[in-house]
Every structure is written in structure tokens, then in C-alpha cells.
Design a protein that fits this description.
Number of strands: 6
Helix content: 10-25%
Low-confidence stretches: none
Largest sheet: 6 strands, antiparallel
Radius of gyration: 12 Å
Length: 79
């Protein structure tokens, strides 16, 4: 993850972004919290999908966490 991606991630709390992992998985995520702790820096988020009224709807019942080192890129959604 680049420093630009980290800055975008940290400025996107409560917003929806596209996350891509180093393994090639790409998905929409509503960012809840970015933790930059020493041992396990990671991001907590809800996986979401577009809803019927232009909103986003959570997929599943729980949140997710991914290590920052496992994120290849962060992109804002195009308006």
C-alpha cells in the first residue's frame, strides 16, 4: 500500500471505496476504522453492494478486517 492509498483510506471513514487486495480480490467497502498499531496495522470495514435506491447495503451480518500490507490499492468511487 502506498502512502497515498493510506491517506485516502484514513480520509474515507464512513465512506465507500473500492479495495483491492494483493491477491487480486476487489470489492466495495464502507470504511469503519483504520488501525496503525505496531504489530497488526489493519482496516476494519463492511463489505457493501449498491442498493436499489442509490444507497449501499451491507453484505452479510458482520464486519471485516484486512492487514494494511494485504491491500494493493484504494480507490474512491466515481461520481
Amino acid at each position: 500500500m502506498t502512502s497515498e492509498d493510506l491517506a485516502l483510506l484514513k480520509s474515507s471513514i464512513d465512506l465507500v471505496v473500492t479495495l483491492e487486495t494483493v491477491e487480486g480480490e476487489r470489492f466495495l467497502a464502507q470504511i469503519l476504522f483504520v488501525f496503525e498499531g505496531e504489530e497488526t496495522p489493519d482496516v476494519f470495514y463492511l463489505k457493501v453492494e449498491p442498493g436499489p435506491h442509490g444507497n449501499f447495503v451491507a453484505i452479510g451480518n458482520g464486519g471485516h478486517s484486512t492487514l494494511l500490507s494485504d491491500i494493493a490499492s484504494v480507490r474512491r468511487l466515481e461520481a
